Amino acid sequence: MTTLIKNAQIWQEDRLQTNDILIADGRIKAIGQQLHDQFGPADHVICADQHFVSPGLVDVHVHLRDPGQTDKETITTGTLAAAHGGFTTVGAMPNVDPVPDTPERVATMVQRNQQEAHVHVAQYASITTGRTSEQLVDFAGVKAAGAFAVSNDGSGVQTAGTMFAAMQGAAQAGLPLAAHVEDDSLYQHGVMNAGPVAERLELPGINNVSEAAQVARDVMLAEASGVHYHVCHVSTAESLRVIRAAKQAGINVTCEVSPHHLLLSDTDITMDNPMLKMNPPLRSPQDRAALIAGLLDGTIDIIATDHAPHTDAEKTGNMKTAAFGITGIETAFATMYTAFVKTRLLTLGRLIELMSTRPAELFGLKDAGKLVVGAPADLTIIDLDHEYKIDAASMLSKGHNSPFIGWPVYGNVLMTLVDGQMAYGKEQQA
Fold this sequence. Notes:
It is built from 13 helices and 20 strands. The chain has helices at about 35-40, 75-85, 105-115, 140-145, 160-175, 185, 195-200, 210-225, 235-250, 260-265, 285-295, 330-340, 350-360; strands spanning about 1-10, 15-25, 25-30, 45, 50-55, 55-60, 85-90, 120-125, 145-150, 175-180, 190-195, 205, 230, 255, 300-305, 380-385, 390, 410, 410-420, 420-425.
């Protein structure tokens, strides 16, 4: 079966150009104009109507909550939400129950992902058994079972010796190690960023050094081990300063930033509001400015959502009792496009690099993030021209815990194709 996407705007040679895209057997067969003259009529035609067609977005930091927490999200709902957000590949974090900390458990997750997901799912294994112990997983074994990387996301590895041994094992197996950086001895059970806002609201604070101290420790261990060390959801100016210096020293360190840390700061928390409770927390305006600068100068490698759905009950009450985390996979492109491309801080091509091409490259996802002949037809059709409001009723995730509901944005995903098949579409034609 062949599908022709007509009148698509695609990013080529640093600008938008109009072309058609021919899909055959789930892959891109040709890109150009008047393709029907060369290849004949297609079985199915999608009129893109001059909307932007992007390589499918790639998010390496998503919580699908399945198994064990399916009241929050499932593989099915989480990947439907991903498709709604324009993502065709996601990395599933291992803080589920049971934790994928053995080759057998990883293999089970890989199989379930293939059977139940609406987009491609790359599966993380944990770094340690149960994500909390000092016992390391079988790195070679979990890779052979299908893990693309390892992480203890949700928990920082507290012991330097354990982290160094983990890095050595991951490096030997050829696995990236994605670290949730948080020193429990400095964390002190805070619920938001330490500072004047926390003091005014009389809420316990999380200081910057609890994150930055582990980054500083880990980059030295990464240099000694040779591992690809990736910092999850960097949030502080101090962490970014360490990462920048490590890159300049030639250490194999990369990092991601989440949209909420680029868009909001703790000054946006004007009352005790659990919808703004996340870990790492919204930091100071100075930290936010540093993150934006790091995004613009290339110190930050990619954007990843840290999509963290919760039930309504878990996000009610107050910041002391509510769960950490917000959703993000359905709002990420639109908020980033509106804040950075519409304001001309980034080009559209650079945003696609940050949200598709580069994460695929960094994590060895060879078939993802490409809009070229021969690549899988993982494509997203996006209306860049018309403003809309983010609406909870339209969300496909089980979690509606987003501070961006009601925001006016541009960049509405009209259709998402995975291997040439529609994974999300408002209508049969875009």
